[in-house]
Amino acid sequence: MLARLAEVGLIDDAMFARAWVESRHHGRGLARRALAAELGRRGVAREEVSAAVAGLSAETELATARTLVQRRLSATAGLAPPARIRKLVGVLARKGYSPAMAFRVVREVLEEAGDDQLLHGLEDADVEPDLTDGW
């Protein structure tokens, strides 16, 4: 029965995985790592998961991370600088972004915002993301 459904195109894990990545990345801002974990929990084969998350470019992932931090920046305005940085980095960590990318994006957004006080809190966190780490 399942073989017949797959044969006529009603069951297609690869198509499901691609649609899942597209929907969850743009809708929730999830990183490749989180998307791959979700698909794996849903029983999608590793090869299909890899192909689906490979369709999400590093540039797209970086732009989404920047948007997430920019949206949360004003909500953290009343916090002390270390707490504010932790919250902003935490937003990205919970979405599956690597610590290196999270710190890089927070640093860039703070530089653009001209928030020198917060930038001092990031001086010790001199890390760069590995945009090739996949998931």
Characterization of the model:
The protein is mainly α. It folds into 2 domains: 2-54, no CATH class; 58-121. Helices cover 68% and strands 0% of the residues. The chain contains 8 helices and no strands. The chain has helices at 2-7, 13-28, 32-41, 46-54, 58-73, 81-94, 99-113, 116-121. Helix 2 (13-28) crosses helix 4 (46-54), helix 3 (32-41) packs antiparallel against helix 4 and helix 5 (58-73) crosses helix 6 (81-94). The two termini are 34 Å apart. The model is unreliable at 125-135 (pLDDT under 50).
Q: In sequence order, what are the helices and strands, one letter per element?
A: HHHHHHHH
What is the C-alpha radius of gyration, as a whole number of Å? 18 Å
Q: How many angstroms does the end-to-end distance come to?
A: 34 Å
- Enumerate the spans where pLDDT stays under 50 for 5 or more consecutive residues: 125-135
